[in-house]
Amino acid sequence: MNDISFSLCLSELLSRSCFVFQYENALFGARGRTYLCFIAQSDEIGATSVSGYFCSTSDEAHAEMRFLDYLKTSHRGHDTRVACYLSWSPCANCSQALVQFLQNNANIKLRIFVSRLYRTEVKENRKGLQLLSDAGVPLRVMKNKDFEYCWKTFVDHQQSPFPPWYHILGNQEHYQEELSDILQQNDLGAQDGVCVLIVGTSMVRHVKISRCSISCHPGAHVEDVNDVIPRLLAQQPSVIAVVAHVGTWDHNLQQSEKLKNDYISLVRTIQDTKKRVIVSGPFVPPWFGEAKFSRVRQLHIWLKGYCCSGGIPYVDNFTTFLNRRDLFKPDLLHPNLFGSRLLAMNIELTLLSCNAFSK
Q1: Strand order from edge to edge, sheet including 276-280
Q2: On the chain, which terminus has fewer CB atoms closer than 10 Å, C or N?
Q3: Known catalytic residues?
Q4: 285, burial (CB in 10 Å: exposed 0-12, middle 13-18, buried 19+)
Q5: End-to-end CA distance of the chain
Q6: Kindly report the CA angle at 307 between 301 and 312, in degrees rounded to 5?
Q7: Burial class (CB in 10 A: 0-12, 13-18, 19+), 290
Q8: Which residues are 242's β-sheet partners?
Q9: β-bridge mates for residue 140, sequence order
């Protein structure tokens, strides 16, 4: 990337319509490009702050990589504090590139704020965010004050105030909860009195049951949960039973036989640890269309039969949540408080009926 390209990014302001379209923290809807607004402050005597933006290009050059090219040439050797405001969180490759750059340039201190999370159902993207956090990079979802700051700093606002959009606060909460779950890496630590481990996707985030520990893995597939089971159980030696609530996102792969084999492998992994297995079945969020509804229904039918034939307790959530929009958040994907309570009640009743709290 040449200096002329840099100067264009540093001198231009985003249009109001471009900023709102690209940075709106909508839960759904395509936004094909990533925008990265930044402000850099050098500790060099007499230096002034530099601000600008980069965006992904049609030749697939990611905004983060273009930004790194700029840092490599413009801030080498000077202690510099940089704040980045991204319309999407970095992908796995960009996260790794950022971490490597920071490891080789200790003079750069970076903070990252994101409007939305990019494809967290992909395990590598989640690990990339964890790498950034482990490297000491503060990561946070943008709040109203951050959007307002970007509006005043990077947008040709023409003295107009920042126009908050519908559901801006609820969407912030949604993304921050998901990011927090990802960054905590599900390191549970030993907890007194815990008998049951409930492990699953973000659907179980707000499930609360006495003597149960929750391990939430946003966007995880069945094989992802299978990979972390040994570590989670090592952290919780008092656990005598495991509830698995996963499979919500596997339907996107459209590989039904692989999904069945992954579930069988997950059950065997838990059984090999001499822990009891309970399967919490999937439900269909209102956001799902007919094709996804059909795939989740098929998974539910197969899982129920598989568990019955193997003597494995099965939590039937499918009927409880069917056609119940009132049990979901405005995203029509995740259970609201009442929906989470119903899910917790279904799981707890099954645990009690099979004496899962008793050795």
Answers
A1: 212-216, 196-200, 241-245, 276-280, 314-315
A2: C
A3: 64
A4: buried
A5: 64
A6: 150
A7: exposed
A8: 197, 277
A9: 113
State the helix-helix crossing angle for 3-11 and 63-74, rounded to 10 degrees.
110
Answer whether 82's CB lies under 8 Å from 38's CB.
yes
Helix (H, G, I), strand (E, B), or coil: what is residue 292? helix
H or E element that contains 54: strand 50-55
Q: Count of H helices and E strands in the chain?
A: 12, 10
Residue 26 tokens, joined: 């909508």
% pLDDT > 90, the chain = 74
- Looking at residue 5, its pLDDT comes to 41
pLDDT in tens, 185-212: 545 555 667 899 999 999 999 999 999 9
Structure tokens at 95: 């996260």
Structural tokens at position 123 = 């395990």
Q: Which residue from 146, 95, 150 is spatially nearest to 120, judged by alpha carbons?
A: 95
Lookup result for tokens 């007919």: 290
